[in-house]
Amino acid sequence: MSDHRLLGSDLAADPGFLLARARAVTSGAANARLAPLGLKVRQLSVLWLACQDPGPSQRELSEFLGLDPSQVVALVDELQRRGLVERRAGERDRRSRIIVATADGVRLLDRGLAAVRAAGDASFANLTDRERKTLTELLTKVAFG
Predict the structure, then answer these.
(1) What is the set of domains in the chain, with CATH numbers?
(2) Which of 81, 97, 79 is nearest to 89 (CA)?
(3) Is pLDDT of 1 > 60?
């Protein structure tokens, strides 16, 4: 654990602050590992979900990732420009846009996942496997109720 003089502050004991700081630390490490692939965590998240079958709609991406729809549009636009995803009409609602990974997108996802997993291993190195599992369970409760 860090030997920072402010670690004993009330702020350092606030769960919201700790979540935000942990996100900044882990996202920063993951973004650094993703940089050689021309990706950032948010782009990888969209690509990862686009590899699901069936792919998500833009609305589902927005809701699940907790992003404004305009942010999702920009992320999908960039991934589509790079040939990593396609927008397709939804089967049930032709007005809905389903995001589907291309073959190039699937290949890049594999490399991206290896990069973020390596970053995660480094970020969570101080935790046991059991602590990581518990942390994941607790964060899931916070994030999705």
Answers:
(1) 11-144 (1.10.10.10)
(2) 97
(3) no
